[in-house]
Every structure is written in C-alpha cells, then in structure tokens.
Design goal:
This protein is mainly alpha-helical. The chain has one domain (about 10-130): Winged helix-like DNA-binding domain superfamily/Winged helix DNA-binding domain (Arc Repressor Mutant, subunit A), CATH 1.10.10. Helix content is about 45%, strand content about 5%. It contains six helices and two strands, in the order αααββααα. A hairpin with a 5-residue loop joins β1 (about 60) and β2 (about 65-70). The longest helix has 14 residues, at about 10-20. The radius of gyration is 18 Å and the shape is elongated. The two termini are about 30 Å apart.
Length: about 130
Amino acid sequence: MLGILNISEGSTIGLHAAVHLSKAGGDPVTTKEAAEAMKVSAAHLSKILQRLTKTGIVNAVRGPKGGYLLNKPLSEIRLLDIFEAIEGPMKLKSCLMTHPRCGQDGCMLGDMMADVNKTVTQHFQKKLSQIC
C-alpha cells in the first residue's frame, strides 16, 4: 500500500528538480546533469521541465551552454505552483470513497480528512525559499 496521500512520480520529480535548479547558482543545468544528480530518467525529467517552462516557473536556455534555470526568485515559487504545473489544479477529497457512503451521521473518520486537507494545503503554500 502506497499510503493515503499519493503524489505522482512526475510531481515529485518536478519538486526535486526545482530544488536542484535552485542550487545551481543561476547557471543553466542540462537535463542530463539534473537527471544524473537526481537518479531519474532524463526523458521523464525533460517532459517535466517542459511543463515547468510552459508555466513560467523554469526558463529554457538554448545553445551550447544552455539548460534550465528557475525563472523566478525562490520567494515567489510555491510548492503548489510546481505541483499544479505538472498535475493541474489540486483536488482535495473530503471522503476516501468514490461516492460518500456515511450518510447524514457524518464521516466515520471524523475530522481526519479535513485535517489532512488543511495540512496538505498549508504545506503546499510554502515557498521554495522556505525549504531550500
């Protein structure tokens, strides 16, 4: 079992790639360099970096000394921005079932899902500057 909170591999790679780029000191990082450092597929990372570029989080630099670099200061990039660039809008669920079954007596899990949603929302509001 993976757990209650499942974040896709693509989103996880996107979050780690942004942190990796933040440590490059403003120099472009090639997909190959980043993939090797992160121990992920260069092809998968390339698709993720393209999505981050399309949303303006990352800038692609062409040429022999090209690569990718962050397009905004760390204080302006939320974890949520990266997640949503990969996955689309975050959808929080109030019930673990496809169709709620508890009825009018309330959820058998009590406030657990509301608490999980609040914690996830708060964490994804963090800026890269707060975690790098």
